[in-house]
Amino acid sequence: MPEQITLYSAKICPFAHRVELALAEAKVGYNRYEIDLANKPEWYAPKVNPASKVPAIAYGGPQVSPDLPSPESTKIAESLILVEFVADLYPESAILPKDPVQRAKARFFIDAVSTKFLPAYMGPIAHGQPFEPFWDALEDLQRLLPEDKKYAVGDEYTAADIAITPFLARMEVLMELGMKNDIGAFKEGEGKKAAEYYFESGRFKRFVKYFEDVKARESFKATFDADHIKEKYTARFAAQVPAPAVAAAA
Ligand SMILES: N[C@@H](CCC(=O)N[C@@H](CS)C(=O)NCC(=O)O)C(=O)O
User: Fold this and answer.
1) What residue stretches are annotated with the GST C-terminal domain (predicted)?
2) Which of 6, 90, 190, 201 could be joined to 31 by an S-S link, Cβ 3.0–4.6 Å?
3) CATH class (in words) of the domain with range 100-238
């Protein structure tokens, strides 16, 4: 019988979002504590995660207030490890496929997310780098999606989908901000162009459809606060929006 779970998370963090998705898919009740990444509590690193990052789980031990973590609980960090931990605790969930071939395919997809997609992910949007390497990485990942199934390795939503979902969700928010307001670390006009290319060129048709299926899931609706993310990204990138002509002239 699994014991108490306390998740230290942050709404903005895609890695923490992975663990929230896994817990929602497994339909687990847990305590959630929001860590303010800009102002982390002084007890967090010494008592929960020495790396001082979210996500982390305190597992087992007595039911205590999350801001007074018990030394008796086991502390575990790293999103992909935590997703597998949830799958191990709740083997009846579909998070890790039972079939060894499907399981291997899920792990292959996760590896591609970690080694190909993520290194290219924030470059153009957060650091103003060219979009092309990112489009290529996205296309490589898209090739792994089966044409005739809903999700990354079949019709079940698994750890493979959990690995990419939070990043696609944030990418879509950034694309929408880029499309409407040109918000991002790119040159004026580039955000709109990139967003139009992603949604309308047809190159990422399978991905756009895939993500529609992901967004329809209850686990996604319950764990993604798009307004919060929009607000945070708008504030974060506001300083990088090219100044309007009148301000520049002043
Ligand atoms: N490899 C880690 C990455 C976790 C991570 O980078 N989390 C960020 C937030 S998205 C964090 O807590 N950074 C510490 C900070 O902002 O001070 C995982 O997969 O869990």
Assistant:
1) 99-236
2) 6
3) mainly alpha
Nearest-atom number in ligand 1 for the CA of 53 is: 12
Among 42-56, 148-162, 236-250, which stretch is predicted with the lowest mean pLDDT?
236-250
Ligand 1 near 105 CB (within 6 A): no
The pLDDT, as a whole number, for residue 92 is 95
From the CA of 14, give the closest atom in ligand 1: 10
CATH topology assigned to domain 5-89: Glutaredoxin (3.40.30)
Q: Which residues of the chain are in CATH 3.40.30.10 domains?
A: 5-89
In three-state secondary structure terms, 88 is helix
Q: Is 144 in the pocket of ligand 1 (CB under 6 A)?
A: no
What does the pLDDT look like over 205-226, one tens digit per residue? Answer: 999 999 999 999 999 999 999 9
